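so my prof wants the structure for this chain in the tokens format not the other one, which i didnt know existed until like an hour ago. anyway here's the sequence
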Amino acid sequence: MSGLVASRDITLVPRACAPFIDFIYALRRHGFSISPDQTQAFLAAITLLGPRGMEHIRRAAIATLAPPIDRMGAFETLFRAVFHGEALPAALSLPDDDETVVNDRGGVGEQGEVPIEHDQGGAKASALERLSTRDFDQSDMGLTAFRRALPDALPRRHSFRQLRVHSNGAIDLRRSLRDIVRAEGDLTTPRLRRRQEVVRRPLIFIDISGSMSGYTDDLLALAHATIQAIPRTEIFTIGTRLSRITTALRSKDKTVALARAAAAVDDWNGGTRIGPALMAFLAIPRFAAMARGALVVIASDGLERGGHAEFETAMRRLSQLSHRLSLATPLAGDTRFRPETAALAAVLPWLDDLVDGSSAHTVARFMLTLDRPAPRASVAWKEKAHALGH
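here's what i got, hopefully its the right format
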């Protein structure tokens, strides 16, 4: 195999799978969105086909990995580089760690700093991946009242599950007819049913980059209170990596929960790659399904490092999937704040809310209003600017 892919630990899969796994890594490193489900489908297709030749492998790759038509040239080049040992053109070369890592296992990675090449961004936003652990302040955040009020404050949706009721419901015809048959034709009290209502799932992303270091402890405490109130809540951290910390925060003991969260994330106080991290979330089908009909709250300053194209694309897709998409930024705590940076201006049309995220309490107060109608973020900020004479 060529030097295209750095050596990786593949002891968990058969040695014969190594070239196929290397091909997946190569595609991801060069901007192709390949989900774990697609990887499994690719390997299953190879098993079914034999394969008898490289053309079978190539066709299986195209069928299961679904490369975009406009990137077929790059796809074919990478295929030949991995499976035929051809040299990779310089135009396709990328930094070794350009891929956004998704952490859903809670492990602690190796320590170190990996430079990531990006353009200019916010003053405090960094392009450096800084792998580290973190200890959290265990002080009482006074979120008990929030935890009690949250279930009644969030919007609800109808589930597919039916509940038996005694009034204010539709007739359950099948069970009512069954009762009539059992009573040998006598009319009985009809059975009624109604679709159960459930609280919409909160989906919270917490920016843990260096520019948000002063807010992380409070936001994690808020996330813990939210998941205790609404068990279906999903929590992710975003920095240079995407990490799912839902399982860690399910412990009722806040001290234990935050300690587990600290151990589950490797990139505390590192660089800022909001767009790539959100795109990595959307590329995994079981993660993207969590956003469908959800209340998505992103706690971030929005200081995206480099170009904001991926950030804008991710927010557009989240807006289409979610019931409500909100960005809570500590910058909005300043009365002089305006969403005028390139990144914030680009994502503003897709936001339902752009609110003050300067403390856990301001975010908590906002979350308790999620069931109330409000103008879209672009309209609200336009009206605010007009009122101030800008």
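also thought this was worth mentioning. Residues 159-196 form one domain.
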